[in-house]
Amino acid sequence: MKVLLVNGSPHEKGCTYTGLFEVAKELEKSGVETEIVHIGKKPIGGCIGCGGCSGKGKCVFGADGVNSIIEKAETADGFIFGSPVHYAAAAGNMASLLDRVFYAGKQCFAYKPGAVIVSCRRGGATATFDQLNKYMTINNMLIVGSQYWNMIHGSRAEDVAQDEEGLQTMRTLGRNMAWILNCIEAGKAAGVLLPEKEPVLRTNFIR
Description:
It is built from 6 helices and 7 strands. By secondary structure, the protein is α/β, with parallel strands linked by helices. Strands 1, 2, 3, 4, 5, 6 and 7 form a 7-stranded mixed beta sheet that branches. The longest helix has 26 residues, at 164-189. The chain is globular and about 50 Å long. The protein starts with a strand and ends in an 18-residue tail after the last helix.
């Protein structure tokens, strides 16, 4: 079993990474393989709604790492998405990445467990937490919780290392993710099938 952890901060080894790393350590203790991917500092364009990804499973604009995440997602069993808080919202690059990853590669995430962690100096964490969770709730994913909302506080990684409650929340999240993954594996072994999926109906408020 493998969990892909996506670091949406421009800082590779900053506050967000510190939280993700705490989760990853707990997953590894539970026998789950992990990979932390940093999305980098280069600009990631937003989805333009061109529909070019339809039926292809990848974005037509593939030079900025979006398709790399989709490829990794294909073989991952679970996901942790981490972002710093910028103006009470996710980092711009992270939002653009997830818009395109979930639009072009949604089949790689459906029916798999996922979670979000956010890091902030002081405020805006819950708004960002809600924003990022919406990617999973629209795509048949299982959201893994912890003992508190998955957030850590500090201006620097050194500050986060002193956030004892935040780090404990990360460790609990790691253990809960490992438990859910083991439950899914046990269900598969027992012959439990995925839910029956109806054809998707798309309506609007005009007709």
